[in-house]
């Protein structure tokens, strides 16, 4: 095992990570549970203990044809109004937007939209949602210490040790689970060609429907690979910080999962419409990632003596590559029937995913098989409940991307995966406008149930080993009535919910620290 002992104090450690002047309250957040990186490596909490029925496999449970996977232009993602207007035609898409405005006005004062509901969502926004402050950047902060500034040698660990310390640090900063994947060959085609957000704004808003496409530089960023040792940013067509350059060498992807509040996410007054409570549950992952996890983890990697590449400034939901792909290849989750969602064996479908690249060599994790995608072949709970009927009811996934009722070829879905394909334009219209849908597909998912009950654990372990009972379990789930939660009921049970609305102790592998 590598030796990297240090006697840095808590206050000095805060300075190393760029939190100088943080005060005793903030300093207590890094209480000396670990005295040095060797203790981090040897700690059980730095490992990844999963249930016996979650198996590592050589290939993801969703089949992938890497020959079809090309780099994707994220400016025409599912959130891009211009792309959706091409699919449906401007008149139909604009009508959906008008219906959304009418519905939003009518919701004020109703269940889930009362004053206390708005207050909860507004309070969450004050704690620096990704739209409000921009204390992160593509290559991370240059304020944190480096080995040279500390007169210490660069960290030298094995790939296995490196994964353990990354996992330990990330969980300390707020991550639920961490996966790792190597990007050396065809996996680089997962990196976007263009990002959907730039320093001047976003390319996905309705305002671009009637303007020349694509928007000018600054409303997106261009992502290139170059034969350089360290990535950088530069001006592009006269606009600062628009071209992102990654080194054209082997990089490692850190797949980050953040569990979200199941109960508040699942609130709906009518089973179709979202609430201010579910809006805050969705926004919480951005607060955790952009304000704590991303800048802290990038600072951690820099102080070890390595480089990392994350979300560029003002880029909230984009990143460098699809976070779901990161989760699947890095062994965090499996794909589900809704091709917009990954499902985690421990935390279910109410989870948020992010990705960060680094040149710190990591031991790649294998994809997992917990029987989740096989179960989705039988279960149609999300498809049956979807207000816009955007989720496939097919019995088998397909390599072929449907064109639905689009006026032009489907530009938002990427080939090379055998999926149950979602009608992404009708889905986007439903959740953004016509139904204000709370992504109810997550709320009703059978894997969104608590693992505390022995029956649920038994079901999970059974479907991981055999599919013979999948139909029975699906029918039983309808009998038990898994689904949405009345927002008034949420206010009754919320005081007794665990921290952040998720049970952070349920899947830990170690108890309280023994001093």
TrEMBL record:
<dbReference type="InterPro" id="IPR017900">
    <property type="entry name" value="4Fe4S_Fe_S_CS"/>
</dbReference>
<keyword id="KW-0411">Iron-sulfur</keyword>
<dbReference type="InterPro" id="IPR012832">
    <property type="entry name" value="RDH"/>
</dbReference>
<keyword id="KW-0479">Metal-binding</keyword>
<keyword id="KW-1003">Cell membrane</keyword>
<keyword id="KW-0472">Membrane</keyword>
<dbReference type="GO" id="GO:0046872">
    <property type="term" value="F:metal ion binding"/>
</dbReference>
<dbReference type="InterPro" id="IPR028894">
    <property type="entry name" value="RDH_dom"/>
</dbReference>
<dbReference type="Pfam" id="PF13486">
    <property type="entry name" value="Dehalogenase"/>
</dbReference>
<dbReference type="GO" id="GO:0005886">
    <property type="term" value="C:plasma membrane"/>
</dbReference>
<keyword id="KW-0004">4Fe-4S</keyword>
<dbReference type="InterPro" id="IPR006311">
    <property type="entry name" value="TAT_signal"/>
</dbReference>
<keyword id="KW-0408">Iron</keyword>
<keyword id="KW-0732">Signal</keyword>
<dbReference type="InterPro" id="IPR017896">
    <property type="entry name" value="4Fe4S_Fe-S-bd"/>
</dbReference>
<dbReference type="GO" id="GO:0051539">
    <property type="term" value="F:4 iron, 4 sulfur cluster binding"/>
</dbReference>
<protein>
    <submittedName>
        <fullName>Reductive dehalogenase</fullName>
    </submittedName>
</protein>
